[in-house]
């Protein structure tokens, strides 16, 4: 792979800054000493060593000062760039990945060969919550649902907010039943959402649609998960439905019963 000037000049960490400044300083000192020695060799041979020491010290100090300041500015620009890029991929309200960030990470994982299940999570009756209790309560509910989903997952799984009251989850390395069970655990965990900002008697529930991702387009998988979510809504909400767990031979996935009881697979 060819090395570009930009890659050599790029500074991404304090350690990299120190190493590159040191290497560049040694290079400048070596060149300066070489030129100085060549000139003195033909003009003032008796001044060769004193001039060598003097030139080395001056060149080293000047190079370290100039390159150090330049490298610090470069590092600061890199850190700002990283921060702005992170903000561009982050949902401000929840601190989760936003739609762009979620699908970018999902595409990276799939490109690396990750075996993923995609889920769509939608807060039940969210418009009613907003209309009845106001947008401050609605914002609190969104933030708390995001926190609950994030706290309920660990790598290689991840979650993002993809719009309004809708979240997406990516579950890695699970078969359809394991993925459904994990997602349903997240759904059940929403029952613990509370706090002074939540009106008394307001229970937060969500519906989840899941699908195993194949080799096809990511958005095609998202559409299948969204169809499973629609089924969950039609069947009464507050449940998890997988597009991959259907009647097949004598294997049946029983739907999740309303009230938080888990479903099961029988054969």
TrEMBL record:
GO BP terms in the entry: cell adhesion involved in single-species biofilm formation; negative regulation of bacterial-type flagellum-dependent cell motility
InterPro entries in alphabetical order: Diguanylate_Cyclase (IPR050469), GGDEF_dom (IPR000160), Nucleotide_cyclase (IPR029787), Rev_trsase/Diguanyl_cyclase (IPR043128)
Listed name of the protein: diguanylate cyclase
Keywords: Membrane, Transmembrane, Transmembrane helix
SMART domains: GGDEF (SM00267)
Gene3D superfamilies: 3.30.70.270
The organism of origin for this protein: Aureimonas jatrophae
Domain GGDEF stretches: 114-245
Top-level taxon: Bacteria
E.C. code: 2.7.7.65
One GO cellular component, as annotated: plasma membrane
Swiss-Prot/TrEMBL catalytic activity: 2 GTP = 3',3'-c-di-GMP + 2 diphosphate
Any one GO MF annotation of this record: diguanylate cyclase activity
A UniProt-annotated Pfam family: GGDEF
Transmembrane spans: 21-42, 48-71
